[in-house]
Amino acid sequence: MAPGAMSRWTTSLSEARPVSYWLDEPGRPAREPALTGPVTCDLLVVGGGYSGLWTALIAKERDPSRDVVLVEGREVGWAASGRNGGFCAASLTHGLANGLARWPGEIHTLERLGARNLDAIEETVARHSIDCDFERTGEIDVATEPYQAEELRSWYEEIAALGLADGIEFLDAHAVREQVDSPTFLAGLHDRRGVAMLNPARLAWGLKRACLALGVRVYEHTPALTLKRYGAGMAVRTPYGAVRARRVALGTNVFPSLVRRVRPYTVPVYDYALMTEPLTDAQL
Q1: What pLDDT digit, counting tens, does each position of 130-142 carry?
Q2: In terms of Cα–Cα distance, which of 173, 172, 154, 151 is closest to 162?
Q3: CA 241 to chain CA mean position, Å
Q4: Cα gap 175→162, rounded to integer Å
Q5: In degrees rounded to 5, what are phi and psi of residue 96?
Q6: Backbone dihedral region of 86: left (phi > 0), alpha (psi from -120 to 50 degrees) or beta?
Q7: CA atoms of 125 and 134, how far apart (whole Å)
Q8: What is the residue-wise DSSP string for 145-175?
Q9: Residues linked to residue 87 through DSSP beta bridges, in sequence order
Q10: Any idea what DSSP says for residue 144?
Q11: In angstroms, what is the C-alpha Rg of the chain?
Q12: How far is 49 from 77, CA to CA, in rounded Å?
C-alpha cells in the first residue's frame, strides 16, 4: 500500500474505539451491588448473559415462590450477549445445511424447536416490554456468481422435497433486486420468518430488569470462584461472600467452567463487527 493511502486509512480510523457499539450507551442501567457475606437460595444462576438471565427469569416465572439468585463476574450483558451482531436466528444447528448434515433423523424436530424458541423470545420481549428494537426482518442468502445461483436453486429444491422449506422462498435475479436493488446479486433464498434483528445489549438489560421485577436477586461484579457440594446442595464461593443453594445453573458460556471436566469441550469463536457514524442518504 502506498504511504499516502496508509495515511488516509490511519486518519480515518484515528477516532475509532475497540468497544461494543451496543454497550456504549448513556442509558445503560446502573449496576447492581456486589455480593458481600453469605446468602442462601433455592437456585443460584452463575452468569449474567442470555443463558443465565433467561434461566433465572423462567425459573421465577414457573414458581414465583422459588428464591433465585444470579451472580455476574462483571456487569450483565458485558460479554458475548452485548457484543454480537444483533442477529437472532431460529436455527439451533448453526444453519439448516449444518443441521441436515449432522442430524438428518432429528432435523425436523430441531427446526420445529428452533422456530418455537424464536417465537418465545419475541413473546417474552413483548410481555416484559423490553425495548430492544426486536424486528422480524428475515434473512436472504444471496448468490453473486451464476454457479452460486444454481446451487441455491438446487438447495431450495432439496429442502422443499424434505418438507423443510416452510417460510423460505427462492428468488431469481428480478425478485432479489426487488428486495435489495443491487446488480451484484443474481439470486437468493429468502427466509421470511426465521431471523430477527435486535439490540443485543438492550435485550440483556431488559431481561435483567424483568428478573429484578420478579424478585430475582442480582449481584454484579461477583465472580464465582469455586463450586462444591454442601450437604444436599451446593456452595459457591465469591470474592467477598458465598452462596449456598439447593441447585446451581451455570451460564458462563466459554469462560472456564466451575465444573472442570466441562472445560475441554468449550472453545471461544468470534468475529468482528464494524460500526460507522450515521450515513447520509447520498452515502447510502
Answers
A1: 999 999 999 999 9
A2: 154
A3: 30
A4: 24
A5: -65, -40
A6: left
A7: 8
A8: SHHHHHHHHHHHHHHHHTT--TTEEEE-HHH
A9: 197
A10: S
A11: 23
A12: 5
Question: CA 100, CA 132: separation in Å to the nearest integer?
Answer: 32
**Right CATH for 23-84+199-256 from 3.40.50.2000, 3.40.50.11740, 3.90.550.10, 3.50.50.60:** 3.50.50.60
Amino acid 2: pLDDT: 62
CA distance 140 to 189: 5
Whole-model pTM: value is: 0.89
Per-domain boundaries in the chain = 23-84+199-256, 87-138+193-198, 140-192
Residue for cell digits 420468518?
A: 193
Instruction: For residue 142, give the C-alpha cell.
Output: 444471496
Query: Which pLDDT value is given to residue 3?
Result: 61
* Separation of alpha carbons 229 and 235, rounded Å: 6
Report the b/e string of 148-170 with b at 16+ CB within 10 A: bbeebeebbeebeeeeebeebeb
Contact 114, 91 (CB under 8 A): yes
- 68-71 and 217-219 strand pairing: parallel
Name the band, by pLDDT with cuts 50, 70 and 90, for residue 5.
low
* Of residues 262, 248, 56, 218, the one with CA closest to residue 237: 248
User: Are 47 and 227 within 8 A, CB to CB?
Assistant: no
Grid cell for residue 47: 452468569
Is 55:251 a contact under the CB 8 Å cutoff?
A: yes
